């Protein structure tokens, strides 16, 4: 599958099942509205901080569904996955969060250190702080590139340790070619940003804009991107690893959702 096919397939994928797109949109809306209310009205009542609970749960469900999207894409499904086994989806979301935390901790620490040096100290310290921040951004970029394949590897095996198998992750990227892999991620990110800009403009419409972006635009963006991640990962599979060739290793979507 070439770049055009991956992008074309990923564009069609979110709207292949509007019901599931909208269910994901409702989850996004719960998260977004909870945070909006907290930011705008907690000065009126501190009790509104309890809305952090639905916001957190909804965010974890979103991440879990994103992981499930990668998984079912690898399995060869052509529609977004069903909303089943919510507790498993919540746990999958926690896995996603932990992997992101593991990968991003070091670059974030470097960025914070550089930022602190930039704000305080002599001119030389500020310059050094700026360099440290640039280093942190570079590390964050490299980590982000690797983390895409790491998360997909975790989705494939269904275990968090698979996201830390750096040798296997490196081998999979090399099977595509680092340049092809990075170029594809850049193209996907550009498309993602363009959609995000459009969504941001729609969200400027009072209330209705927020609802529309949460129900349709944001879910579309997530499904587009994670479908693409799954398709990229499929390109790295050896013949013996391929779902159609190894039914005893990978489940069908029905089996996956029932576990």
UniProtKB/TrEMBL annotation:
Where do transmembrane segments lie in this chain?
21-41, 47-65, 97-121, 127-157, 178-198, 204-224
Q: Which InterPro entries match?
A: DUF4013
Q: Kindly indicate whether the keyword Transmembrane helix belongs to this entry.
A: yes
Keywords of the record: Membrane, Transmembrane, Transmembrane helix
Transcription regulation recorded as keyword: no
Protein's name according to its UniProt entry: DUF4013 domain-containing protein
Q: Which organism is it from?
A: Methanobacterium subterraneum
Q: Source organism lineage?
A: Archaea, Methanobacteriati, Methanobacteriota, Methanomada group, Methanobacteria
């Amino acid at each position: 599958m070439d770049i055009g096919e991956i992008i074309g397939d990923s564009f069609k994928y979110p709207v292949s099942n509007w019901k599931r797109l909208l269910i994901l949109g409702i989850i996004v809306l719960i998260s977004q509205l909870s945070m909006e209310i907290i930011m705008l009205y907690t000065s009126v009542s501190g009790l509104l901080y309890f809305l952090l609970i639905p916001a957190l749960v909804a965010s974890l469900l979103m991440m879990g569904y994103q992981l499930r999207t990668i998984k079912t894409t690898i399995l060869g499904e052509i529609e977004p996955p069903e909303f089943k086994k919510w507790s498993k989806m919540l746990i999958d979301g926690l896995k996603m969060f932990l992997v992101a935390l593991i990968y991003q901790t070091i670059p974030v620490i470097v960025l914070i250190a550089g930022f602190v040096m930039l704000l305080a100290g002599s001119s030389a310290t500020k310059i050094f702080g700026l360099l440290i921040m640039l280093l942190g951004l570079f590390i964050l970029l490299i980590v982000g590139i690797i983390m895409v394949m790491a998360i997909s590897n975790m989705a494939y095996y269904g275990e968090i340790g698979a996201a830390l198998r750096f040798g296997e992750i490196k081998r999979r990227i090399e099977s595509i070619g680092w340049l092809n892999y990075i170029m594809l991620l850049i193209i996907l990110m550009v498309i993602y940003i363009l959609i995000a800009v459009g969504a941001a403009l729609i969200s400027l419409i009072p209330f209705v804009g927020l609802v529309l972006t949460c129900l349709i635009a944001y879910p579309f963006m997530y499904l587009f991107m994670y479908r693409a991640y799954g398709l990229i990962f499929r390109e790295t599979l050896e013949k013996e690893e391929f779902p159609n060739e190894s039914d005893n290793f990978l489940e069908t979507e029905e089996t996956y959702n029932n576990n």
